[in-house]
Every structure is written in structure tokens, then in C-alpha cells.
From TrEMBL:
InterPro entries: RNaseH_sf, Tc1-like_DDE_dom. GO terms for molecular function: nucleic acid binding. This is IS630 family transposase. It comes from the Eukaryota. Residues 22-86 form the Tc1-like transposase DDE domain. Pfam families: DDE_3 (PF13358).
Length: 125
């Protein structure tokens, strides 16, 4: 995970916010790999500020809808190898309509409103 931070996160942050900027905050869920001692230490040493995230928060990220859709499509196939799984996932991903992405992005205001109305609890999204 730290190599992803090193090769992906920091270069992206520098490009988006400036070479010496610390005016950004990293948002991660509570996946164990994000909370590992080595990752926490890396983020501290590299002065990465992390947005506090509740342990049982509902996931409002639209990509979760995409993952679920792909799981449904893939579960209907008889896949026996990781190579075939990768090929099928790539095929299904490439067949997703652009309008799906637009609809998911456009749903964010409703998602946030529903989350606020639910007092931070789970919503239909």
C-alpha cells in the first residue's frame, strides 16, 4: 500500500495542489490495509493528513454501485481461472454505458441529502 501512496498519491497531490502543498486531505475508508501500522507511519512521515472516518459508515461512493453491477454480471458466468476473470471483468467494464457514470455522479446531491436526513445512518444508496 505504501508503494501506491509513494508512486500514485504523492505525485498526484503534487500535480493537483503544488509541489510543497500540504493543503489537501486524504479520504480513505477503514479497510485494514489503510489502517496498518506501516501505512499510518508512512502517512505521518510524509505529512499526509487523513480525514477521520467512522468505523461503520455507510459507503456513499458511487463506484460501489459499479462494483455491485459487475459482480452481478460476472456471477452469471462460469469462470474457472483468474485470467478468464480478468478478461470478463475488462469486457464487462468496457460495456458499461457512459450514461451510467453520469447518472451516478449526478446522484451525489441526492445521496448526501439522504445521508443527512438519515442522521449519517444507512440509506437506499
Amino acid at each position: 500500500m505504501c508503494s501506491i501512496y509513494e508512486r500514485g498519491l504523492l505525485p498526484s497531490a503534487c500535480e493537483l495542489f503544488g509541489e510543497d502543498s500540504i493543503d489537501w486531505i486524504l479520504q480513505e475508508d477503514n479497510d485494514p490495509k489503510h489502517r496498518s501500522k506501516i501505512c499510518k507511519k508512512w502517512k505521518e512521515e510524509n505529512e499526509v493528513t487523513v480525514l477521520p472516518w467512522p468505523s461503520m459508515s455507510p459507503d456513499q461512493n458511487p463506484i460501489e454501485n459499479v462494483w455491485q453491477l459487475l459482480k452481478i454480471k460476472i456471477s452469471k458466468k462460469k469462470i474457472k481461472t483468474s485470467r478468464r476473470l480478468k478478461a470478463e471483468l475488462t469486457k464487462e467494464w468496457n460495456q458499461l454505458p457512459v450514461q451510467l457514470a453520469k447518472n451516478l455522479v449526478n446522484s451525489m446531491e441526492k445521496r448526501v441529502t439522504a445521508l443527512i436526513n438519515a442522521g449519517g445512518d444507512f440509506t437506499m444508496y
